[in-house]
UniProtKB/TrEMBL annotation:
<feature type="transmembrane region" description="Helical">
    <location>
        <begin position="277"/>
        <end position="297"/>
    </location>
</feature>
<feature type="transmembrane region" description="Helical">
    <location>
        <begin position="33"/>
        <end position="51"/>
    </location>
</feature>
<dbReference type="GO" id="GO:0055085">
    <property type="term" value="P:transmembrane transport"/>
</dbReference>
<feature type="transmembrane region" description="Helical">
    <location>
        <begin position="7"/>
        <end position="27"/>
    </location>
</feature>
<feature type="transmembrane region" description="Helical">
    <location>
        <begin position="63"/>
        <end position="86"/>
    </location>
</feature>
<keyword id="KW-0812">Transmembrane</keyword>
<dbReference type="GO" id="GO:0016020">
    <property type="term" value="C:membrane"/>
</dbReference>
<feature type="transmembrane region" description="Helical">
    <location>
        <begin position="242"/>
        <end position="265"/>
    </location>
</feature>
<feature type="transmembrane region" description="Helical">
    <location>
        <begin position="214"/>
        <end position="236"/>
    </location>
</feature>
<feature type="transmembrane region" description="Helical">
    <location>
        <begin position="152"/>
        <end position="177"/>
    </location>
</feature>
<keyword id="KW-0472">Membrane</keyword>
<dbReference type="Pfam" id="PF01594">
    <property type="entry name" value="AI-2E_transport"/>
</dbReference>
<protein>
    <submittedName>
        <fullName>Sporulation integral membrane protein YtvI</fullName>
    </submittedName>
</protein>
<dbReference type="InterPro" id="IPR014227">
    <property type="entry name" value="YtvI-like"/>
</dbReference>
<comment type="similarity">
    <text>Belongs to the autoinducer-2 exporter (AI-2E) (TC 2.A.86) family.</text>
</comment>
<dbReference type="InterPro" id="IPR002549">
    <property type="entry name" value="AI-2E-like"/>
</dbReference>
<keyword id="KW-1133">Transmembrane helix</keyword>
Length: 362
């Protein structure tokens, strides 16, 4: 009997590994569904909170409220970001002719000065010929880069319809997952024995609290980033300080590794292209400072919110980054808490002695 139980568990582990490998190698196809399921699980505490707080009996109403708020916030964030980028590109494109004239005058002056300088050398014609060849190679390289860049933009434009379809599938799947999540979880738990199902329920309940703690930590840190960004932008760029700080806050509260740099760095690059080098450098330095502060403070705040000490939090984030890249920084603490919760529930306890006693003839 013991050998049969061991073989059964080994077969289950092998089956799970094979399923995991299949999903991993076909991750692009499963990504919208997996993200929808993960988002539904993240939103589940908010759904239950609304049902409990406002005594909502129908789950459809609570799910619809959370889903609508998610759509509004996401649409607003995308609209503001795209509007800001498009306006910046339009302003920059209007100034391109002036920049071209300035560059042309600078190049002409440089060529004239170089011609006067090279005329004093006996090997001047050979040097000029070599420079012409170097210039031709540089121009060819620039043209190749331009061609590659145009091809890349074309691929992005052609991918827009696919992205829209994937986004629509993600949203529909998210709503359906959120609506049927309790039933899906019950079906999942019914696969296991009652004792194992109770342990798994404990793990999932604990992870739900971890999700709420994680969002609480993200809100606290992003609020601090908002205040620091606003005070800094009052000195760097007072005009759009409030709206940009709000954009930075929205981007920072979303689980992205770059955080504020997603707004400040492109703004700084555009500012330097438009000629305001000082402002561009200040924005880039501010982005680096905010990123450093967040990475330093995050382990402590996150650990206190999800019930972990700072050392396990930073180690789980580090090893998550080593093995799974940027997403590992986010998933690392959750994986550690899942393993810790499973251990506390006794899910990993294998009572070999009781099985042996049960199988013994005496």
């Amino acid at each position: 009997m013991l050998n049969k139980l061991l073989v059964k568990r080994i077969l289950i582990i092998i089956a799970l590994i094979l399923i995991g490998l299949f999903v991993y190698f076909n991750l692009s196809a499963f990504m919208p569904v997996l993200l929808a399921l993960l988002t539904a699980m993240i939103f589940e505490p908010f759904v239950k909170f609304l049902m409990r707080k406002f005594n909502i009996r129908k789950r459809l109403l609570s799910v619809s409220i959370v889903f609508t708020v998610f759509l509004i916030v996401s649409t607003f964030l995308i609209y503001i970001t795209l509007t800001y980028l498009i306006e910046s590109l339009i302003d920059w494109s209007r100034q391109i002719p002036g920049y071209i004239n300035e560059i042309e005058l600078f190049i002409n002056d440089l060529i004239q000065t170089f011609d006067e300088f090279i005329a004093e050398f006996p090997q001047g014609p050979q040097i000029v010929r070599a420079l012409d060849e170097l210039t031709d190679n540089t121009i060819n390289t620039a043209l190749n880069w331009s061609t590659d860049f145009v091809a890349y933009l074309y691929e992005i434009i052609m991918a827009v319809p696919n992205m829209l379809i994937i986004g629509l599938v993600y949203l529909i799947t998210l709503f359906l997952f959120s609506l049927d999540l309790p039933r899906l979880m019950d079906n999942f738990f019914n696969i296991f024995k009652s004792e194992t199902a109770d342990k798994l329920r404990y793990v999932f309940q604990r992870m739900a609290k971890v999700f709420l703690g994680w969002w609480k930590a993200q809100f606290i840190m992003s609020l601090g980033i908002f205040i620091l960004t606003y005070l800094s932008l009052l000195y760097i760029a007072p005009g759009p300080a409030l709206i940009v700080s709000f954009l930075v806050w929205l981007v920072d509260i979303i689980p992205l590794y770059v955080g504020p740099a997603l707004i400040l760095v492109p703004w700084g690059v555009v500012a330097m292209i438009l000629g305001d080098v000082t402002m561009g450098v200040q924005l880039s330095v501010l982005a680096v400072i905010l990123l450093a502060i967040r990475r330093i403070v995050e382990p402590k705040v996150l650990g206190d919110s999800i019930g972990l000490h700072a050392l396990p939090t930073i180690l789980s984030m580090y090893f998550g980054f080593v093995f799974f890249g940027v997403m590992g920084l986010i998933l690392g603490p959750f994986v550690y808490m899942a393993i810790k919760s499973a251990k506390e529930s006794g899910l990993f306890d294998i009572k070999w002695t009781e099985n042996e006693k049960r199988d013994s003839p005496n």
